[in-house]
Structures are given as C-alpha cells and as structure tokens.
C-alpha cells in the first residue's frame, strides 16, 4: 500500500469482505452448479451461469468500490480477500453441493495459495517493484532497455 494512504478502516473492510464472500459464493455457483445437472444442455448451462454471474457482479463491484474508497484497501488486498473467499467457497461447494470428497492434495495446494494471500495482506515487502514514471505507469522505455539488455547477453 502507498505510504501516503490513510489507515485501513476496519468497519468498511468488514463490509467489503462480506460482499466479496457473497460474490465468491455466487461465482463458484455460476462456474460449477451445472456439473450437478448433467441433463442441462450446454446452452442452458451457459445461460444460467451467466445469470448467476450477472448477479455476482452486483456484489463484487460494490465490494471493490467500498474496499478501495472507504476501507482504503489496495486492489491487491481486495484480490487477496476475494481469493481466500473463493478457496473456502469452492471447498464447501465441492463437498456439500457436488458431493465430491476433499482430498489432501486439495488442502495442501489451497493452503499454499492461502499462504500467498496472507503474504499479500500482511507481508513485509512494501517497496514498489516498478516505481511509477511521470505518466503514472511503468515507463515502456525502461522495460524495453531491460529486454534489450537481457537478449544481448
């Protein structure tokens, strides 16, 4: 997070997190519910998935707006929260809706992803990798110089 950014607001962070959790549940449902209903044709499955996904955006967009504007969370922090919610939602959905057993490799693999989520949210490395240029983004000339140097070596 930027050193000049205001402190994170816990109340608004909780609101954004709740909306992101709801968004994740809806998106997992949109992605995987059709697997339970093999009788659905592919066009029907796509249509119903898109209906659910459309509703999901009604949670996700406000969650990110509230998280950024009111809670003062960075986009990376919002993505990390959503990722944690997605992992948990998926494991619950897989077990209780699709009736698929959770395997140890699921737990270990998702724990590794969750470790990355924790690193994004609480990690000690707060120095930008690519400082912003005058245009507000990474200067393409700098990247071109790095590429040219690397290809000549």
From TrEMBL:
Pfam families: DMT_6 (PF04342)
Superkingdom as given in the UniProt entry: Eukaryota
Membrane-spanning segments: 12-34, 40-59, 80-97, 103-122
This protein's UniProt keywords: Membrane, Transmembrane, Transmembrane helix
InterPro entries attached to this UniProt entry: DUF486 (IPR007437)
Keyword NAD attributed: no
Keyword Transmembrane helix applies: yes
The protein, known as: Uncharacterized protein
Organism classification: Eukaryota, Haptista, Haptophyta, Pavlovophyceae, Pavlovales
